Amino acid sequence: MAEPEIGPSHLCDLARQVRECTLDFLLGAADSELLWAPRGTSNHILWHAGHALWLQDKLCLEPLTKKSELPKGWETKFGMHCRPVASTKDWPGRDEVARLLTLQLQRMLAALRETPAERLVIPQGSARCLAGTILHGLHDEARHQGEMYLLLKLARASG
Known about the structure:
Layout: H1 8-28, H2 31-34, H3 45-65, H4 74-78, H5 94-114, H6 117-120, H7 130-158
Helix pairs in contact: 1-3, 1-5, 1-7, 3-5, 3-7
């Protein structure tokens, strides 16, 4: 029996579900919770939301469109090897991050809809196919939502 294919519409549905949850956590946090991190940790809710934007740029949009659309300096603040969070003092505001996440989702959905299903199963210079790379990025964003949820719970329990 052949394995079912993951097509553009499946990836669109998943991208929408994952991103809506990221936005819910970002928009649902109180101002005092956005930059809060428990002692001994560094990443806060705003960082996780900004990292989601970076993730989908690198693992979805760049592979699909061959270009990055990150704001200048985004990778330094939110990338995989970003500078230490404690050394950043000029964080973008919640509304700006939410706006960028929303716009990026629209670009992701448009790029996915324009991508032929056959292209999603072609390996991308490694063993992982394009659909696998996109799924990896969406899975990673969902894992960061778990961090955001835990930070909300801890902030509310400590305050």
